[in-house]
Amino acid sequence: MAVNSPTSRCAAQLSRSLAPRSPLPFSNRTFTRPGFRPDPPTARFVSVRCQTPSPDAFRSKRPVGLGESEPPIGSSGSSSTSSAIDFLTLCHSLKTTKRKGWVNHGIKGESIADHMYRMALMSLIAGDIPGLNRERCIKIAIVHDIAEAIVGDITPSDGVPKKEKSRMEEAALNEMCVVLGGGMRAEEIKELWAEYENNSSIEANLVKDFDKVEMILQALEYEMEHGKVLDEFFISTAGKFQTDLGKSWAAEIISRRNTRLRKSQN
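User: That's the sequence. What structure does it adopt?
Assistant: Structure tokens below.
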């Protein structure tokens, strides 16, 4: 709740809007999600048009005051609205691309976005852990597979080495951030992705666990829905959980699965 103190009233009088900056023209591009290919992408040339600066560009600008922040993406003075919509359109394939591990078992169910969404929910409802930033966990969960909008869902069955997979995804992520128009939000997306990829924080540790927890929970649900036995997903994650919370949730899922299997055998 805002407090109307003398200090806040003074700050309100002193704050002014920054002069809007003309967004760079963004060439209309149609984004299509290529199928998976192990060959490295070919080099492409991007043309950049130069605009003649307006007279306002040479006027002195007032320094940004304390408490002010960069305008949100899509607003005047930040990345153009067209860049924001281009970026979101590129992310559309995350909603439509099915996770390949399930497709390989004849199940055309959850999408990449479905997977990331439930991971974000896991981060939201996670109990308090000393030193853990839950909001950062949510952001990492939303971003961690975002490069698959371009490269697709690369699984171990594709035979792509881990380093090459990481290189391909980083290149795709950089391309997406160019589409977004750069700036603070693009840099934040890169930072969150790298943090997860390098497993370099307690937040990344937990979200890595949630990635596996979400997968085995989905496997259990598909076993129940389709009458399949999906042992490989449980075997591949066994002993790989890093956090107490991840271990606890995984143990609960496995316990429910074992109970169901025992009942089905009787």
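Residues 78 and 109 are 38 Å apart (CA to CA).
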